[in-house]
Amino acid sequence: MRGKGVKSFFKKVYLYRAFLVMLLPAVAYTLIFSYYPMTGIVLAFKKYNYAGGIWGSPWNGLENFRFFFTSGQAGLVTKNTVLYNVVFIVLNAVVQIAVAVLLTELTSKAYRKITQSLMFLPYFISWVIVGIMAFNIFSSDYGFMNNIIQALGGEKILFYTTPQVWPFIIVFFNLWKNIGYGSVMYLAAIMGIDTSVYEAATIDGANVFQRIFRVTIPMIMPTTIILLLLSVGGIFKGNFDLFYNLVGTNGLLYNYTDVIDTLTFRALISSNNFGMASAIGLYQSVLCFVTVVVVNKLVSLYDKDYALF
Fold first, then answer.
1. CA of 290: how far to CAs of 62, 235, 236, 283, 297, in Å?
2. For the segment 162-198, what is each residue's pLDDT rounded down to a tens digit?
3. Predicted TM-score of the model (pTM)
4. Under a CB-based contact definition with an 8 Å cutoff, are residues 182 and 94 in contact?
5. How many CA atoms does the CB half-sphere of 107 hold within 13 Å?
6. Beta carbons within 8 Å of 26's beta carbon, 6+ residues apart
7. If you compute the radius of gyration of the chain from its CA atoms, what whole number of angstroms results?
8. Considering only CA atoms, which of 238, 231, 241 is closest in space to residue 94?
9. What is d(CA 186, CA 182) in angstroms, rounded to the nearest whole number?
């Protein structure tokens, strides 16, 4: 039986040889750029030095993890990372779905295309440019916001020394930049709904709001859950470009804006501690993996068709 199975396997390989050859570049790319770099995990358990390199550096066990967890910042940056990402995921999903639904309800195709293009434009703007825009808006000396406040007779607000306002600023810019791209995903899902369902709902007397909440939202729920599951996979990873370009190295804002990625970057730049950076990266990856597995299990308990695996 075993010999027959092996013979059948090689027969199939020969039969589908053309397809397998076509698949080789994708497999090679995945192995080289996705799996081979994972061997660098060993750095999390080593005291890296340039002379020894990755494999020749001495082992130091869990010392890199101990340094991170005893730094006094591990709990803060983990909490900030999770809270920011939860707000990003929930708020982005709600607003993007709302925008996609509103776009489908527009009767003018020209206005719909112009609106969609304008909302999609911020996605292509670099976070470096967004950081400059934010500085020109909130600067205490010549910022656009303070100019308006002073023109109306108010006192200027020192945004860059007021950390409490930055969670709102960061959430706003993240939403503004991603609303167009995210709404396209949901818009595609809505366009895939059979128009006969809407026709039947209209014949039954459903108004526009009933069609949205009784037809559109339930029909795009599988897409919504899959996108949310994919987003949850990075819940312990901060958007480094977003936080670093908006906040920079302003230590006054760290308690409200510091995330795991920015803390790792500063530690790496100041001390060149590659082992600690790798340890934090492994810490993030394990937490993300566990989160995906747990959330996927909860979703499968609700409806197996909505689960990723």
1. 20, 11, 11, 11, 11
2. 999 999 999 999 999 999 888 888 988 898 888 888 8
3. 0.84
4. no
5. 1
6. none
7. 25
8. 231
9. 7
